[in-house]
Amino acid sequence: MEPEVRKIYDRFYDDQTKQQNAKLLGEFQVIEQIMEDGYDELFIGRNIESGEICLIKGYEVCYYNSGMGYAVYPLKNLLSPCDLCIYNPPSSMDGKPCSICPACAIPR
Question: N or C: which end of the chain has fewer CB within 10 A?
Answer without folding.
Answer: N
